[in-house]
User: Fold DNA repair exonuclease from Paucilactobacillus nenjiangensis.
Amino acid sequence: MKFIHTADLHLDSPFLGLQHTPAKIKKDIMQSTFAAFKKIVSNAISTHIDFIVIAGDIYDRDSHSVQAENFFIQQCELLQKNSIDVYLSYGNHDYQIVNYDKSLLPSNVHVFANQVETKTFTTTDGTKVAITGFSYDTRWVTDDMTGLYPSRSQVDVQIGMLHGMVSGSNAKHDNYAPFSVAELTAKNYDYWALGHIHAHQVLSENPWVIYSGNPQGRHKNETGSKGYYEVDYQNHQLQPVFKTVAPIDWEKLVIEINQDMTAQTLQTVLVQSLKEHANDTNQIIQIELHGDTVTPDIQDNIESGLLLESLQRVTSEWQPNWVWPTEIKVTENAVLPGMTSLDRQYWETAAGEVFNQDTLHELTNKLFANQFIADEFDNQTAIESLKEQIELDLSMKGEK
Assistant:
């Protein structure tokens, strides 16, 4: 018996900020979440998977397009033709769909209601499986739902499906079905298929408690390998293996600079580094410059956008896979010409008070009601990026 654990497909993600992106690259980006799921379905068929578990956020938002819905239905119909069932729950992004008429979904798709329930079935090789889970019907589920999950059934394999976040790790994430790993392991299930966190990670091996991550990164903070878990059941043991499917990787390229570098030599170094960084997928790359000094020549080329535009003209034509640098930023350890030591002291004091999640939520409460904004700043990495960009802008103004 084999099954696939995936989550956070986020079909129809808007991918904002693509106005100046070449048409081909823009099209590839907009289609990337669809392409990733299509690859999962193709792999499921070719490897004779018994069923697929999708732990929340099939769509990026409730008001998804008809195209996205038709695509998902068509993929499920393709699975149905190959005798593969789908067990899914809706998450905080697509919570309203749980109340929709499900008649459009093919009969091989089994949707969990907004209350914890268990679905039991037997696979073709005689393995008896039980899956327990629930769908969101509101944007936030602040209750710890694990207490409602029953203890292990009299089955061969018991799977728990949960779209949520470990409690206490982030105050904002306590809005999303908070749980503790100890609570999950106490249920004596064989496998917990988790969703919501977009980086794949194993929280426990006995039993397996796993975030599959999202199959396709959606912005610069979602770097690293993206895919799903294929789980094989043999000799009464489960063995999960991570499989990559993302057609586009979001990556970070760090370059060391020195005071002898000109903008032209830096561009040469960057082009060569991007060539070495290229692989068998398309890539969107954020460039970070590390060093003790940023020369006025380099600073002017960054501020004007000339350096980035020059790189984009070169790399966008690479075949068979393109590379698209989206930004060039200078990290904090570099001494920016427009900022004195006293400026630095005041800046560090003020920045520590301002650039944290609690302050941003307090100052921009209404904006965070928009899901895509809340997602962008739901981690400290994004906030640090905002801080660095503002610091660079301030230093450049000071130089003028």
